[in-house]
UniProtKB/TrEMBL annotation:
Coiled coil: none
Swiss-Prot/TrEMBL keywords: Kinase, Transferase
Keyword Cytoplasm annotated: no
Organism from which the protein derives: Leptospira andrefontaineae
Entry's family note: Belongs to the fructosamine kinase family.
InterPro entries, sorted: Fructo-/Ketosamine-3-kinase, Kinase-like_dom_sf
Highest taxon of source: Bacteria
Protein name: Fructosamine kinase
Recorded GO MF terms: kinase activity
Stored Gene3D superfamilies: 1.20.1270.240, Transferase(Phosphotransferase) domain 1
Length: 298
């Protein structure tokens, strides 16, 4: 789609000039590539190379996304090459490699390899050194010695409280979520698992299938958590991986399988479903109630 907003085009050209990617004396072809929570533009440079510019409304959001991309890259995870960030007034521009997407052989194997590289990175504490974002919502972090404290205080509880303020959750829903979390955290011994680096927002839309056969992860919200959090989120809207492949990824990371992974997926989906309730409203309450019924809540 051709860009019709002249001001946005000039803003992007200004940002590219500041990054040293495009001289102010040169022109670039800029098109709106996609839009969901944020606008993404494709830029074709005079030498015919292409890059992507993401328009982000908060400086902190752009900085933590850039940090996440660099962190994943250091750990052997395939991501678009990060080219720099420019803060311009009320918005920030995040520049990265443009990934040509399309059907290709090798995609699944490349994704599996990236996730195996990611989850072999253990740490002594749960959490992350700074707050970041999940979609456009703040995601608090910090360091915790136990899974249960970290995941309740920094993942489930903030989303529950936000949904209650917005009159989207009942007290019964909130109590049911807490009961499920307490019971299965204990039953599955989640406090005895070593924290691993996770992508943190790994739904299928954040996995790009490159025409070159590679799988690129985008929009990270990193933390040291449990890899099943990522794999369950990947299942939420249609995963490219099957259950056997997910179990292989976990086994390679040295994680035991207490019980059936299939039975735990919906436990981990509580967090992204709550996030979607807060981002998009009551239409996602059906998904939440489905999870509650799955674990015996009437």
């Amino acid at each position: 789609m051709a860009i019709t907003n002249t001001g946005m085009g000039e803003l992007i050209r200004d940002g590219l000039d500041r990054l040293g990617i495009l001289s102010s004396s040169k022109r670039a072809e800029i098109t709106l590539h996609s839009t969901s929570l944020f606008e993404l533009y494709k830029v074709r440079l005079p030498d015919a190379s292409q890059l992507a510019i993401k328009i982000i409304p908060k400086k902190e959001m752009a900085d933590t996304e850039a940090e996440g991309l660099e962190q994943l890259c250091r750990l052997g995870v395939r991501v678009p090459e990060y080219l720099g960030t420019v803060h311009l007034g009320k918005v920030s521009l995040l520049a990265m490699e443009f990934v040509q997407t399309g059907s290709s052989a090798g995609f699944r194997e490349d994704l599996i390899a990236s996730l195996k590289n990611l989850y072999k990175n253990e740490f002594g504490s749960w959490g992350w050194k700074k707050d970041n974002f999940i979609g456009s919502l703040n995601q608090a972090n910090g360091w915790f010695s136990s899974f249960r404290e970290f995941y309740w205080e920094r993942r489930l509880k903030p989303q529950i409280e936000l949904a209650q303020v917005r009159k989207l959750l009942t007290d019964k829903d909130s109590s049911a979520i807490k009961g499920i979390f307490d019971k299965f955290s204990e039953d599955w011994g989640l406090d005895h698992v070593k924290p691993r680096m996770v992508h943190g927002d790994l739904w299928s839309g954040n996995v790009l299938q490159g025409k070159n056969g590679f799988a690129y992860l985008i929009d990270p919200s990193v933390a040291y958590s449990h890899p099943e959090q990522d794999l369950a989120m990947l299942q939420l809207f249609g995963s490219p991986l099957n259950l056997e492949e997910m179990q292989d990824i976990l086994a390679t990371a040295g994680l035991d399988d207490p019980g059936n992974l299939k039975d735990r997926i919906q436990f981990w989906q509580l967090y992204p479903v709550l996030v979607h309730i807060n981002l998009f409203g009551a239409s996602y309450l059906t998904s939440l109630r489905h999870i509650l019924r799955y674990y015996g809540v009437k």
